[in-house]
């Protein structure tokens, strides 16, 4: 079994959550089994160990991006910065607001999280509409960093986020793709 199929077989689908008709892709089983978790992390680490893909910093999106991103950063021997929901960071921040299906949300980043010229890997668990990852990209760029790639475990291409991010010039790396939300 290839890596994508192996990881896909450990992602739980929860029907009708959080709303009727939604097929929720739950990654927690990937984290619970130590062998599966290692395969997941190693897949990302091996990709970003190559000199041309190696970041200076890994940025993780609140909250599941923290889990994956911090471990990947540790394994690569680079720093990790959290991109948090508004009001969670104690120091001076920059903020980016983005639209949700019903309303909006804001994410923040410490102003000293990255330096101009830093090459940043932006990581999250899932790409749906792409709003959170796009906001994270904009935050990092406001501080002068270059987001070299967006990475996620799961892509839900029919929700448009993958296309939106690629159209904005962000290369993407995802491990598993699911049609149908």
Essential attributes:
single chain; alpha/beta; two-stranded antiparallel ribbon; 34% strand
The CATH architecture comes to 3-Layer(aba) Sandwich
Task: Look at the structure and give the mean pLDDT.
Answer: 96
From the helix content, strand content and strand pairing, which structural class follows? alpha/beta
CATH class: Alpha Beta
Q: Into which percentage range does the β-strand content fall?
A: 25-35%
How would you portray this structure in words?
Helix 3 (34-49) packs across helix 4. The chain is built from 6 helices and 9 strands; from the N terminus they run αββααβαββββαβαβ. With 181 residues, the protein is of the alpha/beta class. It is globular. The protein has helices at 3-8, 28-32, 34-49, 64-76, 131-142, 161-167, and strands spanning 12-15, 23-26, 57-61, 79-85, 93-100, 103-110, 119-127, 146-155, 172-177. The mean pLDDT is 96. The chain has a single domain (51-177), classed as Rossmann fold (3-Layer(aba) Sandwich), CATH 3.40.50.2020. The strands form 2 sheets. Strands 5-6-4-3-7-8-9 form a 7-stranded mixed β-sheet, sandwiched between helices. Strand 7 (119-127), helix 5 and strand 8 form a beta-alpha-beta unit. It holds the Pfam family Pribosyltran.
What's the structural blueprint in terms of helices and strands?
Blueprint: H1 3-8, E1 12-15, E2 23-26, H2 28-32, H3 34-49, E3 57-61, H4 64-76, E4 79-85, E5 93-100, E6 103-110, E7 119-127, H5 131-142, E8 146-155, H6 161-167, E9 172-177
Parallel strand pairs: 3-4, 3-7, 7-8, 8-9
Antiparallel strand pairs: 1-2, 4-6, 5-6
Helix pairs in contact: 3-4
Domain Phosphoribosyltransferase: 30-154
Subunit structure: Homodimer.
Pathway: Purine metabolism; AMP biosynthesis via salvage pathway; AMP from adenine: step 1/1
């Amino acid at each position: 079994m290839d890596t994508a199929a192996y990881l896909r077989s450990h992602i739980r689908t929860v029907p009708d959550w959080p709303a009727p008709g939604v097929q929720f892709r739950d990654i927690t089983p990937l984290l619970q089994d130590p062998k599966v978790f290692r395969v997941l992390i190693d897949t990302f680490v091996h990709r970003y160990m190559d000199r041309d893909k190696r970041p200076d910093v890994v940025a993780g999106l609140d909250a599941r991006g923290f889990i994956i991103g911090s471990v990947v950063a540790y394994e690569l021997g680079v720093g990790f910065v959290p991109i948090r929901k508004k009001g969670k960071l104690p120091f001076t921040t920059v903020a980016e607001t983005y639209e949700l299906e019903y309303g909006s949300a804001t994410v923040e980043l410490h102003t000293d999280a990255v330096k101009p010229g830093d090459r940043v890997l932006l990581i999250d668990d899932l790409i749906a509409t792409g709003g959170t990852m796009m906001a994270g990209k904009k935050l990092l760029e406001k501080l002068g960093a270059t987001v070299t790639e967006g990475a996620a475990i799961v892509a839900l291409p029919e929700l448009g986020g993958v296309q939106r991010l690629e159209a904005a010039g962000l290369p993407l790396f995802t491990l598993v793709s699911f049609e149908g939300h």
